[in-house]
Specification:
Two copies of one chain form a homodimer. Chain A has helices at 5-19, 28-35, 39-51, 76-84, 109-124, 128-131; strands at 55-58, 64-67. The first copy, chain A, is mainly alpha-helical. Chain A is elongated, with a radius of gyration of 17 Å. The A-B interface holds A 1-5, 8, 11-12, 15, 35-36, 76, 88-92, 102, 106-108, 111-112, 115, 118-119, 122-123, 126, 131-132 and B 1-5, 8, 11-12, 15, 35-36, 76, 88-92, 102, 106-108, 111-112, 115, 118-119, 122-123, 126, 131-132. Chain A binds a DNA duplex through helix 3.
Amino acid sequence: MMISTRGRYALRVMVDLAEMATTGYVPMRAVAERQGLSLKYLEQILPVLVKNGYVTGMHGKKGGYRLAKDPAEYRVGDILRLTEGELTPVGCTECGKGSCERAESCRTLPMWNEFHRMVNDYFDGITLADLMQ
Amino acid sequence: MMISTRGRYALRVMVDLAEMATTGYVPMRAVAERQGLSLKYLEQILPVLVKNGYVTGMHGKKGGYRLAKDPAEYRVGDILRLTEGELTPVGCTECGKGSCERAESCRTLPMWNEFHRMVNDYFDGITLADLMQ
DNA sequence: TTTTTTTCCTATCTCTTTAGTAGGTTTATA
DNA sequence: TATAAACCTACTAAAGAGATAGGAAAAAAA
């Protein structure tokens, strides 16, 4: 299983925030309840999104979260890469470095590289706006 | 990481067997050495391929393995599904059953389903023959 | 100024998977 | 009968998945 709950939940949260955009700051407690997810688990995922400027977090009473940009500005690929770590479906294509010394002669590597590209392209072609409504 | 060493090694072994086709039965010891893989680990993977008629195993001296069919007859997808278990990149699309009760209203599920289909189609479109030479 | 409500931070835990190692049994050839 | 191979089964160490838990900091309301 390549995409874990971290990335999937992050995505569901962000779509939820997108759909509740008019309501100002949305407390995560409400999102967790609507989505049937563990609040404590989500609290662990969200600071990453805040730090990278994807959502804005507001402390205290009347606080919560809201999207920092227009839903159409978010690529699903970016959100997944942020929450899951690099989207690397195969060990061979570990980001950047050619980790395998057999790379030159390997019969299967080109296939993995193409797959890696395909996966990232797929998710980069979808925005939060596409997932809404 | 979605595709583990089991499936990747199985594939490399089968391509190796395909390229050594003229040599009769090829002992796994030789394949392991050429590919730089643990013999003991491969010995654990190969019986599955034999049981499903992908390769033929021959006991004893002068024994070894060889492909049961023409390289063009093997789809990479089939080999991976056999050695890895179902190719399910996302928990939501667990084979057959709609495991999630939120399926109806889920904003992200269609994307995961489409992704699941894409992954399987990709690997089903490649044969062992495509990987050779 | 105190209470409440929220984000945020960090530690811990259980279960499963991954990637092997290890040792022995069976089978066929020389 | 010796040898070389497939085959079978158990074990293990490390990592990752999917949380739970407890509390600190901050901001608004009372």
